Amino acid sequence: MKEILLTLFSLTLSGSLLCVFLLLLRPVIQNRAPKAFSYYLWLAVLLRFLVPLGYGVSLPQPPQPAREIVQQETSLSDRQDRGDTQTAPIVSPSETVTVKPPETAQPSVPAFSLPGVLVFLLLTVGAGFFLWHLAAYIRFSRRVRASLAPPVAEALALFEQMSHGRVRLAQSGQVDAPMLLGVLRPVIVLPRDGPSLHPQALSAALRHELTHARRWDICYKWLVVLVTSLHWFNPLVHWMGRRIALDCELSCDEAVIRSMEPTQRMAYGDLLLMLAAQPKKAAPWMAAPLCQEGKRLKARLLGIKGYRRPGKAAICLTLVLGLAVACCACGMVDLRQPQTQPSPDPEPAAETDPYASLLDRYEDALSLSWEMSEYRLEHWPDLPNILINPYWYWQPEDPTERLLDRVGYVRRDLDGDGSEELLLGWVGNDIWNLDQGYVFAIYTLVDGRPVLAVEGWERSLYVVREDNILCHSGSSGAGQTTWSQYRFDPSAEGYLVILDQVSQPEDGDEAWTIGEGWMASGVSLPYTPFAGSGVRAYQDVLLGKTSFLYVDGSSQARSILLSEVPALFSPYSSYAAVSEFAVLDLDGDGKQEVVLQVTDVANDMGGYLILHQDGDEVYGYPSGRRTFWALKTDGTFTYSSSTGMEEGVAAVRFEAEGLVMDKQVIWATEDWEAITYEVEQQPVSQTQYEAAIAAQAQKPDAVWYELNEANIQQLTA
After folding, report:
1. Is the separation of the CB atoms in 672 and 605 below 8 Å?
2. CA quadruple 175, 177, 178, 181: dihedral positive or negative?
3. Is residue 514 a contact partner of residue 503, using CB atoms and an 8 Å limit?
4. What phi and psi, each to the nearest 5 degrees, are found at residue 362?
5. What is the rounded CA–CA span in Å between residue 419 and residue 550?
6. What are the pLDDT digits (tens) for 295-343?
7. Burial classification of residue 397, based on how many CB atoms lie within 10 Å of its CB (0-12 exposed, 13-18 middle, 19 or more buried)
8. How many CB atoms lie within 10 A of CB 211?
9. How many alpha carbons fall within 13 Å on the CB side of residue 570?
10. What is the per-residue pLDDT across 390-426, written as a single tens digit (0 to 9) for each?
């Protein structure tokens, strides 16, 4: 309701401003522009009052008082001092964190809101105002039409010479001046009583009313009534209605006297005076009578007396002013409070985290499989050797034990300068007895940019003590091992200041005890694993950047790339290819699978491969070419046996032994004569079977996409 109220007030304010603008223009166009121009300019104002469209014009907002700003800041500080705020945990930039707002008691909503009551009152009074005018017009129109009589022959002959056929002519004793009534069936009504009009005066009166009919002025008047009813509370609207009525008569008078001589114009003015002197009978505002009284009559007589044809300068002026009014009418005052942009986070990750882009590069590097070592060396030569050296991408029998799937990062201020360093190391402690949380890279900031300060690998291992002292174990591989203790100092050469050092065999066997004691003092760091490490995303598999585990029913799954799939279905064909893929939830567990279609020469079917993600691994399950026909969005599909003696509808589920197909609707035969039907493992009749098949056909089809990079990038795993 508040939006309706603001829209209504915006319309009334916008229309009022445009109305005042026209009022200021009147001295400029009073005796220069045609009267019809002034009359039709009001149409732009009426539309501005009605149409809630246009480019927004916001009113200047008062500045927020300084006291309020200080109060807000003080309140925030108080809440922080009391510990009301919570500290958000440090998470990976790649992770999505959902922060739930604190639960607060919701105030009860009153049954009647103030905006709702105001809208109801405004619209109710407006509807009553409109219905009152409508009832008055209907009552007057019925009374006049009930008393209509044919006009005198002289008036009818004159009318037939001027009329264009849409308007009728009649006379009635219920009117005291020539008048136009009706929209769909307009009729010009002449007074039956009163003085008879001279043919010349009658001709001018008829021409005046026919001008009203030709311009549809009755519709114009009803539009004014509609605007006045909607904005009844705005006094400027009522003044505008009276002004439009006067401009309507002035423009019609101008159309009548345009072709008259001065003496004829004076006679037309005398006609208006004569009709104004007759006793008046009540007529609704929406009718178009010829004569009016008071100031309106005076303005019309002055307009007739001072009429002159507009020149070229006046025509140009009207065009310029019309364009200006039209542009102003397109604007609308916006009373809604401006949407204040939320103040930026004091520490947005993308802008204030200097390590964000570096972590993104690690994400990309770790998303590649070990087979793409050359590609990795080419695109990430500046990353630590341990990440790009293919030696570390070893393939153990258990894919979950890959070392680089355990790469993570943590931030820690090693030198106490208030600026955190970025440490990269191992997540977990069950691989190669890495129970001290070894660090293989340390980045620090130099002029706001991350710089690789310390790097280690399999024979150069670092750990961090609780007091941030770095303990190092380095081996040359020839029986020489050195243990060192360092203090991290960005101002020192090599970023490390040596504190103590022992070596073996120089310092004897005691060096082993001392050195291994230093290494054992390292703390286990809370590393955050990279979301891009290991095989995790369908995108990477489809792009050929990483491998997946192919499960073909044998005892051991094997790691392959997508480029190897066609040869698995058609080993002797060079035309086999993965052509299309569909993304949907096959087993109803809320997670998506990818169904790949493998084709051979002439688009002959080779089969299907289903990609299913379980944890960090993507598994690929092959399926025959007679499955996954007419695949539906709910994961069901049509299948057929290799012999053609069974067909129906099935779905799949994923078990430890692989892909399992559950048959939901079955048509089967053994001898092509005895046919059996089943639905949900229950025998049914042929009619019930056909109904199940028909219901399956009505389900929405899954969408198949051509296998190309553009479509793969849109895939959401």
Report:
1. no
2. negative
3. no
4. -65, -40
5. 46
6. 677 777 887 877 777 666 667 777 777 777 777 777 666 665 554 444 4
7. exposed
8. 20
9. 20
10. 444 444 545 445 555 567 788 999 998 888 999 988 7
